[in-house]
Design goal:
Layout: H1 16-22, H2 26-40, H3 62-67, H4 69-77, H5 92-98, H6 102-109
Helix pairs in contact: 1-2
Length: 110
Amino acid sequence: MRDMIGYCGLDCETCDAYLATIHDDQALREKTAKLWAELNSAPILPEHINCEGCRVNGAKTVYCESICSVRQCALKRGVSTCGDCPDLEECQTVGAITSNNPDALKNLRG
């Protein structure tokens, strides 16, 4: 599985935080921070929008680094992604993502 597929199956290479980071795109950081702040009712600032992917070494957003329950579970279980977890099919944590994003589930199933 590609390193840029997140623990949840989402493709980090298509994430605006990743794109803003690798292209050092301040306008995209600002746009993403504003959208994410509205969607999450949280104080997300442009300087919070730095991420190099959740499964690789490097910068991560605060959410990805320490709040994402999918990432925390995968790290605790020692799996590369949720696709390696025997509980994938009945997991409600990753199910919240895969139920809205069929490509994520396809990525996890390989």
